[in-house]
Design a protein that fits this description.
This protein has helices at 5-14, 20-27, 31-40, 57-64, 93-102, 128-139, and strands at 65-67, 73-75, 86-88, 91-92, 111-112, 125-126. It has two domains: 1-53; 57-139, no CATH class. The longest helix has 12 residues, at 128-139. The protein is built from six helices and six strands; from the N terminus they run H-H-H-H-E-E-E-E-H-E-E-H. The protein starts with a helix and ends with a helix. It is an alpha+beta fold. Helix content is 41%, strand content 11%.
């Protein structure tokens, strides 16, 4: 779905409980666009997902992955000394972002497939299966 004002209005009408962060992440747009669409409909602001209990890794990625120009995402949270985005001591942001974008767990190491170092946009991330498929396609 394209990040247009009309699509935002449709999503907000269908799911008014969805947070601005979640809708912006789903549509690949800035959070301000979602907030403006919500305000134009006279809906109360929902800047963050409801935090009724422990926050899931997926929600943490949606909150901390800020959309940049060109469809890239920058992580605003913790990093290793080498700059790798971290959710916690055992989980990289890339693994969770990959799962959100591709609907499956990554196989092997998750690597950035675009030119932006440490981009956390799930569609810009590759795993072993995607890299092998790309190599097989290039060899054909």
């Amino acid at each position: 779905m394209m990040p247009s004002f009309e699509n935002l209005v449709r999503l907000l009408t269908a799911d008014p409980a969805a947070s601005d962060v979640e809708l912006a992440f789903r549509l690949g747009c800035k959070r301000a666009l979602v907030a403006n669409a919500r305000a134009s409909l006279g809906m109360p602001p929902r800047p963050l997902p409801p935090l009724d209990g422990p926050v899931s890794p997926e929600v943490r990625v949606m909150i901390g992955a800020v959309l940049q120009n060109g469809g890239h995402r920058r992580w605003v949270g913790r990093r290793t000394r080498d700059g790798v985005p971290l959710l916690d001591a055992h989980t990289t942001v890339n693994r969770v972002a990959f799962r959100l974008a591709h609907g499956r767990a990554p196989e092997g190491t998750v690597r950035v497939g675009c030119v932006i170092k440490h981009c956390v946009e799930g569609l810009h991330l590759t795993d072993r299966i995607i890299r092998e498929a790309a190599r097989a396609g290039a060899a054909a």
